Structures are given as C-alpha cells and as structure tokens.
Amino acid sequence: MWTMVSTSYSQYRGRILVVDQDDWCREFLSQVIKLCGFGEFNLARSVEEASSLLEQFSFDLLITDLNLPQYHQMLEDIRQRFPAMRLIVMLHQRSQLQQIQLEQIEVVIKPLGLDEMARKIREAFHSKQRHKVEEEILRLKRESFRI
Description:
alpha/beta
C-alpha cells in the first residue's frame, strides 16, 4: 500500500524574483512557487526588468540563469545593495560551475526538476532565516556585554 506524504513548504515563504529570458522557464518556476506555496513572486525576462522590480519591491530570493545577458553585472549589484538576498543560479552544463564564485549561491543544472527546484528554494529560505537568527543572537550578545 502506497501512502502519499504531503510536504508542507508554507513555513518557507518570501518574495521571489525570477529572471530568465526563456518563457518556458519563467512559467515552470512560477508553477513551482505556486504549487509549493513559497509566497509572492515576480517574473522578469531581462536584467533591465529585474532592476526595475528591485527598485519597487524587496525580495528574499533571486532565481536567474547564468547565460542571461548582463548576468554578472546584475549579481554584483545585488550583492552590494541587497547582501541578505539569497540566490539560485541555473546552469546549462556542469562545466559552468567554475564560473560561480560568490557565496550564498545555490546552483541548479537545467533541465529543471520540480523536486530539485522546490528543495533549492526551501534551502535558500532556510539559509536566510538561519542567517537572521545568527545576526540576532550576535546583536543580543553585544548588548548583554555592554550592561
């Protein structure tokens, strides 16, 4: 007898920005986010669209493609302006892994799978939450030693 186990992702919620020039990829990722209840999201097909959205909204997670024009410029800008934002980068080949040298980046190889994307998004939110808790503990330690 098979039993279906439902995994609740609702504890992992945030605002996600998906940036990819391929319509199918943006659509797939929007369906993963909706299906798993990861929160609100926006879709952009270019760095320019993403920049505009970053000016309007606060995001917890960025999912983008390594082959996107102006990819490196966008990531560097995000790292400087939004250091707490988590990143998932999609690659077309494992050989592209050596191009990823920034911390706090999760990597996914295309073609994308629903389970793997859901796990990566969940891990990114978990990592962000853990980072917030660690910062709060550090702040409390500093405060307590000033007394």
